[in-house]
From TrEMBL:
GO terms for cellular component: cytosol. InterPro entries: ChyE-like, Class_I_gatase-like, GATASE. This is GMP synthase-Glutamine amidotransferase. It holds the Pfam family GATase. PANTHER family: GLUTAMINE AMIDOTRANSFERASE YLR126C-RELATED. Keywords: Glutamine amidotransferase, Transferase. CDD domains: GATase1_1. One of its GO terms (molecular function) is transferase activity. Residues 81-184 form the Glutamine amidotransferase domain. SUPFAM superfamilies: Class I glutamine amidotransferase-like.
Amino acid sequence: MKLGILQCGHAPDPVAAKHGDFDQMFARLFAATDESPDFDYRVWNVVDLDFPAGPEEADAWLLTGSKHGAYEDHPFIPPLEDLIRAIHGSGRRMLGICFGHQIIAKALGGTVEKFKGGWALGRQAYEIAPLGPIHLNAWHQDQVTTLPAGAEVLGGNDFCQNAALVYDDSILTIQPHPELRPNIIGDYLAARAGDPAYPEALIARAKDENDKPTDDTRFAGVMAAFLQHGREALR
């Protein structure tokens, strides 16, 4: 299966120097799952206005995270929303992670906003079907606050109620970052330490929690199965 990765942003330089960009993180993550999917990866840096010709360029698609807000005025966002609608209309399956989760919801008629409750940084607990209670690393303030037509909530928590969404048999999206495994989120925390954009108490808490296990490979297995089998993978 050719998996097209739409890179909506880039990892911070200190993180990318050690771990590569998001596409490499996802390739390693999928390789670590029990599914062991045989994906042929193709990457488009849509944040830099590098776009595929259309949905037919890949069999399935994945949209990454980004430092940008889905509601912000950036040149890449309108054509990305058009592409999302075209992929959805083609019936090809699609995954969205963090910003990808948000921009898919926005492109299909939902609302994304800066959450008044602030940031989620590091290891968070979620209740997500079909896995039940799981822990994943998060790095976000924006949230999907109004669902688009056709979206169903798979799970979340008190802080982020719409953390995982499924759309019929074709789209699965999640607010946290399964690709930011503990060793990677640790380098994120080191790179962002002292940045006034992030509350010191949340950075400290995330560092304290980073020696605890996460369920990134379990959820990545669900994502890989969804790309291959659709809604059946969530039963």
